[in-house]
Write a structure and sequence with these properties.
The protein is α/β, with parallel strands linked by helices. The chain contains six helices and nine strands, in the order H-H-E-E-H-E-H-E-H-E-E-H-E-E-E. It is globular and about 55 Å long.
């Protein structure tokens, strides 16, 4: 039996190990719901996906903090609120197909899988790519397909996508990704260099609509985007 700590923090089980589920519940209440994320499917996924399994051993205790966490190779896993917000902005559900650029730890992809979404995720750094694929497999997130390489060109074999989420910031939106978005689908993407805006780009019958949501800070998108001026 697990007895929650008498201090009322509820973060440790009776055996002294962190009570991860309690930490996740608190994360959802204090960091995510409180900032306005409402989609019940997103909240449920954030409650179930074991974020601590996606961060290096040394950072496990910090996994549910209200901040980004290092995942190795100079990269970070986004703050939980940002993951939840980006997932909500995609407006996807069971059976939809999402392209992710920047697999990183695999956490964002796992959150989408937990919502019944089929995920195609591309990671440019080989070591992170291999690690993420391994973590996702070990935890049974079978709806996530990971590819190692530059995500600039998207994944045309599986296009069009009902949603596209980019978790590294390009200076401008790569054209191939726009082309691979289905009509009615949303792309959620941080755009900029030092100052970045989280944008939602929606494909309509006739073109694209764009809106800015909040200022954000992501690691830069690397690879082809740095070499191909103008798109
Ligand atoms: N979504 C991740 C966090 C990603 S951090 C998670 O949930 O953990 C951003 C990632 O984007 C980094 O791992 C970085 O290597 C990757 N990245 C940067 N440029 C990229 C590109 N052109 N194609 C694919 N991945 C890229």
């Amino acid at each position: 039996m697990t007895i929650l700590g008498s201090g009322g923090c509820g973060s440790r089980g009776g055996d002294g190990r962190p009570d991860w589920a309690a930490l996740r519940e608190r994360m959802v209440e204090t960091q995510i719901k409180s900032r306005g994320v409402r989609d019940p499917r997103v909240l449920e996924a954030m409650r179930t996906v074991p974020r601590h399994e996606f961060v290096p051993e040394a950072w496990r205790a910090e996994a549910y903090r209200d901040s980004p966490v290092p995942i190795g190779d100079g990269q970070t896993i986004s703050q939980p609120y940002i993951v939840a917000l980006m997932t909500e902005l995609l407006e996807v559900g069971p059976g939809d197909r999402v392209l992710e650029i920047g697999t990183g730890s695999g956490y964002q992809a796992a959150v989408l899988d937990a919502m019944g979404v089929e995920v195609y995720s591309i990671e440019i750094r080989p070591s992170l790519c291999r690690k993420a694929a391994e973590t996702l497999k070990r935890l049974g997130y079978d709806r996530v397909h990971v590819r190692c390489g530059d995500g600039y060109g998207g994944w045309p074999e599986h296009a069009p996508f009902d949603g596209i989420v980019v978790t590294a910031a390009p200076e401008r939106v790569p054209d191939p990704l726009l082309e691979q978005l289905a009509v009615g689908g949303h792309m959620v993407i941080p755009v900029g260099t030092f100052y970045q805006e989280l944008k939602v780009i929606t494909r309509t019958e006739t073109g694209f609509e764009e809106r800015s949501v909040i200022p954000v800070r992501f690691v830069p998108m690397t690879g082809e985007i740095e070499r191909s001026p103008g798109g």
